[in-house]
Amino acid sequence: MSGSERIPLSRREGGSKVLPELASILYQFGTNAAFLLLSALGLIVILGMMNIINLAHGEFMMLGAYVASFAVHRGIPFPLAVILAFFATGAFGIVLERLVIRRFYGRELGALVTTWGISLILAQGALLLFGPYMPPIPIPGGAVSEGVFSFSVYWLILIGISIVLVVALTLVYRATPFGLQARATMQNPSIARSLGIRTGRVYMLTFGLGAGLAGLSGALLAPATSIAPFMGQQFVAPAFITVVVGGGANVIAGAVGSSTFLSLIETPVSLTLGTFYGTMALLVMALLIIRVLPAGISSLGARLRPAVAR
Amino acid sequence: MILEVNDLRSGYATGDVLQGISLTLEGPGVIGVVGRNGVGKTTLMRTIIGLLPARQGTIRLRGEDVTRFSTEDRARSGVGYVPQGRGMFPNMTVLDNLRTGRFVGGGRHAPQFDLVYGYFPFLHQRAKQLAGTLSGGQQEMLAIARALIGGPDLLLLDEPSDGVQPSIVDEIGDFLTDLVRTRGMAVLIVEQNVDLVRRVVDCAHVLEKGRIVATLGGEEIRDGELLAEHLAI
User: Which residues of A touch B151 (CB under 8 A)?
Assistant: First the structure.
């Protein structure tokens, strides 16, 4: 609000105080949802498309944050550093898939233990190579103040970016040849192969995309956290909760639904009772949803669809 | 020579199902493989497309030995495979199912939508519908169209009449006859439906316990009695 528009304080009592408060709640809600969605993004691609529970997801995010930190402190602008993190982590994911992961397709427990091992190696390796901390990345953009409330410009951008990423990911899977082949491979790999689709390459690119998205999210969230070898752990629990609550009927829509719904619960509790109780509320809500809808929020849509189609 | 199978053996962990199969498709036409349940008809089809590895023998496509090729490379060499049970992608639309067939034959040409819509106009009308919501017969026609759209040299049809109402079976029969006559297609069909076999097949191999025990020519098939005997359960 510019100076010329300022109205005497006495007249601002009442109505005009509600607006910033509402904006603040919306902002908190948006940041919570964006955090959940960004944490889950790479995981939903790998779990939803390949049925691999990637326990190294947090370390892929750590890797992205490390790449971004390296890049930023060598003078590369932050937005470019984030893009670099996507490609570097994606390339790393592709190499990992070719060397290790592809040997465990169809063996879910084997893949689970393997990715857990990879996560340990990555975190300890980062500790050995780079020490306990990386130079932090300053939060880009300043803050916008409105009365007693202040909004971080960067988090507002993150909310926007998570929306853009979800739309882009949906378009990749709905409207590109790769997306078509990936969906076919997901639904029936042997039939896909018998139609000439190179499912091995689809898996490789899917794992690379999932890893790259994890790296991208790690880089995007890096300014808001300390960049350290074990930083991935803080993202893993929210990521898995978001994915499990979202369910497998439509992983992307499920993750959007669950991150929206969970932050709808978390935000008011956090604002009134503190973030500790906010996290508690999120966990309790997640448990309740999984109890009532074992196949997740997206199974609601799948349950309704046949009725509509007929 | 489109397809040449020589002394083929394959099977599952419990043992060889195919005990040395040899057959050839020399050019346009429909060759049938008939026999009772469990004699290895589907195993033969799965081994030709590569979903099961050959334990012995060779498979040649237009002279090229593809026995060690991956399934996807065989499809790209020009084999359109229509599996038993149709192998739909049920949660994808009819149009998307058709699009997945474009690499059959190598993907060098644009998908032949006009060709398959010409034979099966309902695919065009229902392009946006989920494939899983089609009837059995419609799914069969979609599976055939999907295998055909990329322009294969050879179609492998595994029991196209299974779970399909008789009028649609007739329709599929007419379609196959036309496909051979106008497009010069070579078709290997596994079938238990006597009417469909009599309607489309030029020559039929009778499979028993993983071996070809008889080969029936046109007259013997049209006669019907021998065929019915071999198919009797």
Answer: none
CA distance A101 to chain B (A): 20
3-state SS, chain B, equals CCEEEEEEEEEECCEEEEEEEEEEECCCEEEEEECCCCCCHHHHHHHHHCCCCCCEEEEEECCEECCCCCHHHHHHCCEEEECCCCCCCCCCEHHHHHHHHHHCCCCCCCCCHHHHHHHCCHHHHCCCCEHHHCCHHHHHHHHHHHHHCCCCCEEEEECCCCCCCHHHHHHHHHHHHHHHHHHCCEEEEECCCHHHHHHHCCEEEEEECCEEEEEECHHHHHHCHHHHHHHCC
A188 touches chain B (CB under 8 A): yes
Shortest CB distance from B103 goes to which of A191, A196, A309? A196
Contact A193 B75 (CB under 8 A): yes
Q: What percent of chain B has pLDDT over 70?
A: 99
User: Is A193 an 8 Å CB contact of chain B?
Assistant: yes
Supply angle C-alpha A82, A239, A242, rounded to 5.
125
CB pairs below 8 Å between A and B: how many? Answer: 68
Closest in B81, B104, B133 to A309, CB measured: B133
The pLDDT assigned to A219 comes to: 97
Residue-range domain boundaries for chain A: 22-231
Nearest-CA distance from B93 to chain A in Å? 11
Using the beta-carbon criterion (under 8 Å), do B107 and A187 form an inter-chain contact?
no
A300 Cα to chain B: minimum distance (Å)? 16
**ipTM of this model?**
0.92
CB contacts of A196 in chain B (<8 Å) are 72-73, 75-76, 103-107, 150
Q: Which fold has domain B3-231?
A: Rossmann fold (3.40.50)
Chain A residues whose beta carbon lies within 8 Å of the beta carbon of residue B129: 309
Distance from CA of A128 to the nearest CA of B (A): 43
How do the pLDDT tens digits run along chain A, 310 residues long? 333 344 444 444 444 567 778 888 889 899 999 999 999 999 999 988 888 999 999 999 999 999 999 999 999 999 999 999 999 999 999 999 999 999 988 888 899 999 999 999 999 999 999 999 899 999 988 788 777 777 889 999 999 999 999 999 999 999 999 999 999 999 999 999 999 999 999 999 999 999 999 999 999 999 999 999 999 999 998 999 898 888 877 888 888 989 998 999 899 898 889 888 888 888 888 888 888 888 888 887 666 554 333 3
